[in-house]
Amino acid sequence: MNNIVLSVKDLNVWYNDFQAVKGISIDYPEKSISAIIGPSGCGKSTFLRCLNRIHEEVPGARAEGEILLKGRNILGSKIDPVQVRRSIGMVFQKPNPFPSMSILENVTLGVRLLGVRDKSKLMQVAEQCLRKAALWDEVKDKLSQLGTSLSGGQQQRLCIARALAIDPPVLLMDEPTSALDPIASLKIENLMSDLKKDYTVIVVTHNMQQAARVADYTSFFVLGELIEHGACSDIFTNPKEQKTEDYITGKFG
Amino acid sequence: MYLKYRKLKNLIFHFSLYLCAALVLIPLVLIIFFVFKMGATSINLDFFTSLPKPVGEDGGGMKHAILGTLYMVSIASVISIPLGLLCGVYLSEFGKGKVATLLRLTIDMLTGVPSIVIGIFAYITIVVPLKSFSAMAGGVALSIIILPIVCRSTEEILKLVPGHIREAGLALGLPRWRVIFNIVVKGNLSSLTTGVMLAISRAAGETAPLLFTAFGNMYLSYEIDEPMASLPVQIYNYAISPFDDWQRQAWAGSLVLIVLVLGINIFARTLISLKHIKFRYRG
Ligand SMILES: Nc1ncnc2c1ncn2[C@@H]1O[C@H](COP(=O)(O)OP(=O)(O)O)[C@@H](O)[C@H]1O
Ligand SMILES: [Mg+2]
């Protein structure tokens, strides 16, 4: 197996008294795509949001356990979540470009606020990231238009470019295509496969075909528990657990 | 048959809605009409550039009052706009605890305080101790009018920014203050400006808080610790005077004031509707 970039050990998450994630442990190898599938409400988003500590934004949410990023526990009390998020980017379910910012400003905001002021350097980052997000050709002539003026699928790719701009080794995606039409979804799927060359991608999806198409590994959650985790080729053709088989054959979910 | 009935109903409802809209517009149109009719004939360049003449002499203008209003509204703005914006940002971004609830309550009550009472408050706290009517006292009184409006409009505007926009900023590894100022506040500058300008236009037209704070005078003064004229008070004093020429000037002053206030309002509202700064979130 490759190097492990991110290693989750016995993660438990509560919303006040309600436990949404129960003792989940998963290792994520470098430069791979891992999918998380499971019925809605099973804790996929909750799990993913702990990985960059954005779960702390929800009042009453509390995570216990260890999440090791290159060996360091990012849940540790001495670790600054701001630093964690520079290494672990995130793309949300709903495309959310920043309002009243141009396409260019959306992509470069992260690096600009980290101190890069040089115009040509910013332009270079923007082009590079928009290319990686397979959006450059569509927007190169209208970089100063509002990010929100793009179509839903383009907005989502803009959000991917924006996340890539600070160059995080790990990229989290929470159902990135569920708000998009099939063609726009397909574009994002293709894009994910390209991203694998440089990034470790963890993607939540409600769409099993999508997981089977793009991911190397898949985890199956039910009611906050990890039922099965393994290579996609095993999970989808030869699941070990009855529940997994029932879910992927559509008997339950 | 049925369709015809429905179309008729539709027509009746449409008509009543237009009627209501028209009824609402009538007072505004009448006010503007009369102020223009009475004021337009008395307005001339002199009105803007010269000071009042002694009683009995015709002519003269309200230069001192126009400048006084601008001066005191500026004092009020300098005091209350930064404070109101900061309070509004606090209430919208951190406003969950007891302190915030108390602040919100205070601000709401402040909005409801009659402006004459605000004038009396400034009189007791500033004019009496300093033993003099002053532009400062007038500015402070106006700032108390502006503060709650700016604060609440800021809070309401920023609350409209969906939480996932903030999360997107945080997920980029930006500290919270960066997210608040560079994304939430900057992304809504035009709406915030609108709120501020509406508050300013409100203050520019107030008479009551200035009556016994800035008091008014008949000459040009830029001294912050001396009485200062303002358009509303000057209009009030001229309007109740027995002299025809002063009454004409009161109409002219009203015209200037209404153009000023409407102008600020219209400018503020067009700012909101400008295409490139509108709120737009797609699906
Ligand atoms: N902010 C919240 N407060 C309380 N409970 C929540 C909150 N968000 C999610 N939950 C609960 O946690 C469980 C897991 O939710 P979530 O992680 O969003 O599931 P998924 O993404 O798999 O659909 C659900 O039962 C949900 O009701
Ligand atoms: Mg979810």
Automatic annotation (TrEMBL), chain A:
Domain ABC transporter: 6-248
GO molecular function: ATP binding; ATP hydrolysis activity; phosphate transmembrane transporter activity
Keywords: ATP-binding, Nucleotide-binding, Phosphate transport, Transport
InterPro entries linked to this entry: AAA+_ATPase, ABC_transporter-like_ATP-bd, ABC_transporter-like_CS, P-loop_NTPase, PstB-like
Stretch forming the signal peptide: none
Highest taxon listed in the record's lineage: Bacteria
DNA damage found in the keyword field: no
UniProt key word Transport: yes
One cellular component (GO) term of this entry: membrane
GO BP terms in the entry: phosphate ion transmembrane transport
Protein name per UniProt: Phosphate ABC transporter ATP-binding protein
Organism name: Halobacteriovorax marinus
UniProtKB/TrEMBL annotation, chain B:
One term of GO molecular function: phosphate transmembrane transporter activity
Compartment list: Cell membrane
GO cellular component: plasma membrane
Subcellular location, principal: membrane
Pfam families: BPD_transp_1
Protein keywords: Cell membrane, Membrane, Phosphate transport, Transmembrane, Transmembrane helix, Transport
Membrane topology, record value: Multi-pass membrane protein
ABC transmembrane type-1 domain segment(s): 66-268
GO BP term (any one): phosphate ion transmembrane transport
Entries under NCBIfam families matching the protein: 3a0107s02c
Family statement drawn from the similarity comment of this UniProt entry: Belongs to the binding-protein-dependent transport system permease family. CysTW subfamily.
Protein name from the UniProt record: Phosphate transport system permease protein PstA
UniProt source species: Halobacteriovorax marinus
